[in-house]
Design goal:
Among the domains are: 28-128 and 262-421, Vaccinia Virus protein VP39 (Rossmann fold); 133-259, no CATH class; 426-514, 2-Layer Sandwich (Alpha-Beta Plaits), CATH 3.30.70; 590-718, no CATH class. Helices cover 43% and strands 15% of the residues. It is built from 36 helices and 25 strands. The protein has a 7-stranded mixed beta sheet, sandwiched between helices. A 7-stranded mixed beta sheet has the order 19-18-17-20-21-25-24, sandwiched between helices. Helix 6 runs antiparallel to helix 11, helix 7 crosses helix 9 (180-194) and helix 24 runs antiparallel to helix 28 (694-715).
């Protein structure tokens, strides 16, 4: 349910725009095969200029807080782009301020970042935050409280010290490092932070506090740990805090759109002590890290006062800090101790990496007791001994403006990127089936999509499948449809993308297939094929990510949405304008910024809930030509409510979100009308409605769809694909213009996947007539030509019927291949001589027109398909009768013949069955279908 008690965000649309103009573009890996040739990968990385001398290294939130020795974001960005794929899990065992995690999420990966320093964890968390309205309210509250203090300043330093004494940390020689003014005001700020209920808001507030601590202390500077007395005035710490908080919030808000769906886990821990419970064996797809350099930095000292003021003990960090200069002096250890700890890290890396995957380590040389050590070469030898393939070192120079803020680190003028690979040993995995029962044809499709994607015929192990393959190719198992999890021999298991789409993050062992995930269930639509079938067929086709798919009969957009969810470029066309609107809404809404949609939904809900009583007696949202028919099919109160909802929708929304809201309204139109909801035909209720709960049904439908969107947003960061917007148009697929208008051209389509209207099977326009009436103002006279012109329509004019009948009587082929024309001629002869009603007498003419129309469509499909491209057509036979005898209409055979006649070679016919819906006239439904698979 949409929360209406949240204060709307008072920010313009530009705040939701990704501000990444200064971010260098990177070529992204999209296929597992790109990871297999390690030599090529290393050579490509070696050929790059790693100095990034002229690059902006502080874009978005990368510069929200000082941090010593962090590497510039372009380094992990390049490594992540070339050595991993979308949806992969990236680990940085020395995460620092979260540079790797940030770039991983920005590039569509997931991330785990580990660091022993809690200040580092805090910076990283805030870098990748998404703030909601409640967070902003709490941050504004602390801002208001502190401004009141500055205006009144009714508390002396002594009073603040006394009032908040328990919040002042135990700092040895406190007066040497902090004045009473600073201690009192910092403690007061801590008090207000502690009152916050939101963890996110608290983290932002604490980071702003961390930013000013050195400035209001007596420490000489960020990089010089000596005391130097300063004149800190009353109110200065608070003023500095407010000045730090504002730009911090601005940075976070500008960054949110880049990281909105990110999946990232921050762990504060000693990397060397991590167990398989915290990071499971062979669960990581890539490691990118810059470990502490030997004898270079003292993070615990750099952050000493920050740690103390935020409630941590610097000594805890000091005792475990790898590469610490002070620790080296205190323990009198040397490079061998540092190398030993780095060797432990390499053993961890080897344990958690999946076979065949990479580790990239950015490291500089070390100096101990005046001796120079080539750290990268030493680590390479250690890694080789552990079992890694050492691909080599890539040198990079460090520009003087991009060196460490710590003096000890400024001596470094270059460093190396060590690239390692865990040997690619084949793995055996178990592919767990969905919790619901699969039909026989679905079990067959399941095996076939595994074979197509992974290239191995799986072994059946009861309800599950087992495959042995290269671990990088096994990554494709995430894309399977009728597999919900992948289990490895070491006990590690991961869900497929399909399982997350259907169930979200919490896997529910539902015994029923979920066909309405994401926006698939936004609107009822008769005769559509279910999304799992569309996805399985896409997998079986073997097309690559980014390929182009066309559905010339897109209906409500099942194929288009599956293409969007699975990284494909899709185009769809339908003559029914409502169908095109549904398809456009269910795909387009996924590209709308969630904050914008949430704001619009709240405003829409508010306008509906606060509608005046009685409602204005107006119909200004309807076409004047449609009013009479609307009054015939809706009770007066329902008309006024529908008008109010339409007016509200059009006042608060635009583009895809407006389509989304209007389609939701359309989804309840039949239920609030005089139409018998279970009847496809035009038939009124036996008991007419005097009113209808239009508002309640609309809000319930809106809440249901919004909840599904929230579920999708929560798992979007797990996607193994880059999402590509769909293209939809309302047009006639018998003509080439709708396709060229969308940007398609000759030989531009990789796959055609469609389920055409079955000949004389469903009255699509009649079924949707009330929605067309309300949303488009199409009255019966406007709908009639559309109904007649629809491919597969059961309506035909006398003139059309007579022309076709004449051709059949004189044994004219009507432009169709001989087997089809012969069948139609014989059927015409049979119907003329039989005592049947006008509907059956129309069948030969209707079928002739249908196959002629399908010939035109298939001609366009052939023109648009690439050489070697495939057409998958989901269609079934139907029947007619004569004198009690059932006559099969071999639609599947005839469609195949037409395709063959154009040069589409039949690859196979895949038998499938479909379920039926609880509708009157269901006896006429077609439940046995084929997928006709043809190739150009």
């Amino acid at each position: 349910m949409i929360n209406t008690n949240v204060i709307p965000l008072q920010i313009g649309l530009d705040q939701y725009t990704q501000h990444d103009d200064d971010i260098a573009p990177f070529k992204d890996v999209v296929q597992p095969e790109d990871l297999i040739d390690s030599k090529r990968a290393f050579n490509e990385l070696s050929s790059l200029d790693w100095s990034f001398e002229n690059e902006n290294t502080s874009f978005l939130t990368h510069d929200i807080h000082t941090y010593p020795a962090k590497f510039i974001p372009q380094i992990p960005a390049q490594l992540i782009s070339r050595l991993s794929m979308h949806g992969d899990l990236i680990l940085d065992p020395f995460g620092g301020s979260g540079t790797t995690a940030f770039e991983a999420v920005r590039l569509g990966r997931r991330a785990t970042s580990i660091d022993a320093n809690p200040i580092a964890t805090l910076i990283a968390k805030v870098k990748t935050l998404k703030l909601d309205a409640r967070d902003l309210v709490e941050l504004h509250q602390i801002e208001s409280s502190l401004k009141k203090y500055l205006c009144g300043q009714d508390s002396s330093p002594e009073k603040l010290l006394e009032q908040y004494s328990d919040l002042i940390p135990d700092i040895p020689n406190r007066t040497k490092w902090f004045s009473d003014i600073s201690c009192g005001e910092l403690a007061q700020i801590k008090y207000y932070i502690n009152q916050m209920g939101s963890e996110n808001a608290k983290n932002v507030a604490n980071l702003a506090l961390s930013k000013i601590i050195i400035n209001v202390s007596f420490q000489d500077s960020e990089t010089r740990y000596v005391s130097k007395m300063k004149n800190v005035k009353i109110g200065e710490p608070t003023t500095r805090y407010l000045s730090a908080l504002k730009p911090l919030l601005e940075k976070i808000r500008k960054t949110e759109s880049s990281l909105r769906y990110g999946v990232v886990n921050f762990i504060t821990a000693n990397t060397l002590m991590l167990s398989s419970k915290e990071i499971p064996d062979e669960s990581i797809d890539l490691i990118v890290t810059s470990p502490p350099y030997g004898n270079a930095y003292d993070y615990h000292l750099y952050h000493r006062f920050r740690l103390l003021w935020l409630g941590y003990n610097p000594d805890t960090l000091r005792k475990i800090e790898i590469g610490s200069h002070l620790r080296h002096q205190h323990e009198k250890n040397g490079f061998d101790v540092y190398l030993g700890e780095m060797s432990q890290f390499l053993m961890l890396a080897f344990r958690v990496l999946k076979p065949g995957r990479y580790a990239a380590i950015v490291i500089g040389d070390s100096i101990y007791a005046g001796a120079h050590y080539n750290t990268a070469d030493s680590l390479a030898r250690e890694a080789d001994g552990i079992g890694f393939h050492v691909l080599g070192n890539i040198p990079r120079s460090i520009h003087s403006t991009k060196r460490s803020v710590i003096q000890a680190g400024r001596r470094a003028t270059d460093e190396k990127i060590l690239i390692l690979q865990k040997p690619p040993v084949n793995q055996t995995v178990t592919l767990q089936s969905p919790p619901y029962n699969l039909k026989a044809y679905e079990r067959s499709l399941r095996i076939r999509e595994v074979t197509s994607l992974i290239g191995v015929i799986p072994l059946s192990k009861g309800d599950h499948l087992e495959v042995d393959a290269d671990p990088r190719i096994l990554t494709k198992a995430r894309r399977l449809t009728f597999t919900h999890s992948i289990s490895y021999k070491n006990g590690f298991s991961e869900s497929t993308w399909q399982a997350k789409l259907e169930n979200g993050l919490v896997i529910v062992e539902s015994l029923r297939k979920e066909p309405k995930y994401v926006t698939h269930g936004i609107h009822p639509y008769k005769g559509k094929f279910y999304p799992q079938l569309a996805k399985a067929l896409i997998n079986i086709s073997g097309i690559k990510e980014g390929a182009t798919v066309l559905d010339p009969f897109c209906g409500s957009g099942t194929t288009l949405l599956e293409c969007y969810l699975n990284g494909l470029r899709s185009y769809g066309c339908d003559m029914n304008p409502l169908a095109a609107k549904i398809a456009s809404a269910k795909t387009g809404i996924l590209n709308v910024d969630p904050d914008i949609l949430a704001h619009q939904a709240r405003e829409l809900r508010k306008q509906i809930q606060h509608a005046p009583k009685p409602l204005p007696s107006v119909r200004d949202q309807f076409s004047t030509e449609a009013i009479t028919e609307i009054e015939n099919w809706f009770a007066e109160p329902a008309i006024l409510k529908i008008n109010w909802i339409l007016k509200s929708i059009r006042s608060v929304s635009f583009g895809s979100s407006r389509d989304f809201f209007e389609v939701i309204l359309s989804s309840i139109i039949r239920d609030v009308s005089q139409q018998e909801p279970r009847d496809l035909r035009i038939r009124k209720r036996k008991d007419p409605l005097s009113d209808a709960d239009v508002f309640g049904l609309f809000i319930a439908a809106l809440d249901a769809q919004y909840e599904r969107l929230q579920k999708f947003w929560s798992i979007r960061g797990y996607s193994p694909y880059n999402f590509i917007p769909a293209h939809v148009c309302s047009g006639d697929s018998r003509k080439i213009e709708p396709f060229t208008t969308m940007g398609l051209s000759r030989s531009s389509v990789d796959l055609i996947l469609t389920s055409p209207p079955y000949a004389t099977a469903l009255p699509y326009i009649d079924t949707d007539r009330l929605s067309l009436l309300v949303l488009y103002g199409m009255n019966s006279s406007d709908r009639r030509p559309l109904e007649h012109n629809l491919i597969g329509s059961r309506e035909i004019t006398n003139k059309q019927k007579q022309e076709i009948e004449h051709k059949l009587e004189v044994k004219d082929s009507v432009g169709l291949p001989a087997p089809i024309s012969d069948f139609l001629v014989n059927l015409q002869d049979l119907m003329i001589t039989s005592d049947v009603g006008f509907r059956r007498k129309n069948v030969p003419s209707l079928l002739s027109r249908f196959f002629i129309d399908m010939k035109s469509v298939l001609s366009n499909c052939y023109y648009l398909l690439k050489d070697g491209g495939e057409a998958m057509i989901v269609i079934g036979d139907n029947t007619t009768s004569n004198n009690g005898n059932t006559i099969r209409i071999p639609t599947t055979d005839f469609i195949e013949i037409i395709g063959n006649d154009f040069g589409l070679e039949t690859m196979e016919r895949i038998p499938i069955t479909v379920t039926t819906e609880n509708m009157i006239h269901i006896k006429n439904a077609i439940t046995k279908n084929l997928v006709i698979r043809m190739k150009k």
